[in-house]
């Protein structure tokens, strides 16, 4: 949205995307205040998932997945705080990298040629980063990202129908719920921005998108960790941190001498 009267520490807005929040309304150092701070819970959720992946001895791919969630959230914070195009890449490019990583985690257990998938996905992600930096995609970026997300859904559904555990199935349902609600918040914020900006209180739909997608990633990661633990015969179960935040606890079979 149009800049407020507060001076901008970062200079003129150069990003190709602006959201429905008044720029520099609360601080000269933060362009979009709520869109920036709403990423903090996403970082914390990813950190909790990372610690659990280490403690339970999951494969490195899950640690990398949680780290990518943190990188994405931090990149989003930097972008929304500055609204500079060069930093817009720190938000959008990690979004694509993260989805490519999800594709690897989802499909790699049944992939017979182990080296081909990570090599292809790495090269694809690197090529996209270069092209996107110079081309400054807008609509194409969104369509491309949605297409990659849709490729993940059939595999998630396969894991869902193969899983009999009620608590694990609830995680998959929460994944769908947060994705749906987050998308609605994003669409309302984009489509009805002019009307919302005249409300006494802006509902900050994009900030809610951040929060819901942070939860969405956490639920997805936890569900995938549960499924992987089942594949490896680790007897996983869903328990809760502080009584409300689900995480996977495994019981690995004892190694025979």
TrEMBL record:
Annotated organism of origin: Urochloa decumbens
Annotated InterPro entries: ACER, ACER_plant
Binding residues annotated for Zn(2+), in chain numbering: 80, 206, 210
Pfam families: Ceramidase
Cofactor(s) the record lists: Zn(2+)
GO BP annotations listed: sphingolipid metabolic process
Name under which the protein is recorded: Alkaline ceramidase 3
Record membrane topology: Multi-pass membrane protein
Binding site for Ca(2+): 21, 23, 32
Residues passing through the membrane, by range: 33-51, 63-83, 120-137, 172-192, 207-227
Compartments it resides in: Membrane
UniProt keyword annotations, A-Z: Calcium, Hydrolase, Membrane, Metal-binding, Transmembrane, Transmembrane helix, Zinc
Molecular-function GO term, any one: hydrolase activity
Family according to the record: Belongs to the alkaline ceramidase family.
GO cellular component, one term: membrane
Lineage: superkingdom: Eukaryota
